[in-house]
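Write out structure tokens for DUF4440 domain-containing protein.
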Amino acid sequence: MTPPDEDAIKGIWATMALAWEKGDARLFASVFDEDVSFVSVRGEEQTRRDEVEQGHARLFATAYAGSRMEPDVRLVRPLGDDLALVHVTSVVVPADDKPAMTTHAQAVVRRRGDSWSITAFHNMIPLGAPR
């Protein structure tokens, strides 16, 4: 894996953070494979990009309206030439005075052509993390 590959993988989360801040569910979902395996912090399973988009559109219109996500990519571990494991801890900062929420995601990303996307994603709230 080259430094540009690692930068491109980290760029996935930069896109997600921008989309979150804008409340743009389509942009948020654009970083996932069409047939992604996605598990939310609540254990909800989604198996298509459009489901991820619809779920985040609801979140951005309600509980997370005006919030922002601050991701910290902590691990990019190659699993092959076109596959990598990624660990990301994110803080979701609400628009109001409510406390921030910390999440941790484990993802598998793959390269198709010149771009990387998320093929599997499991998000959770770490034990002892602020909610």
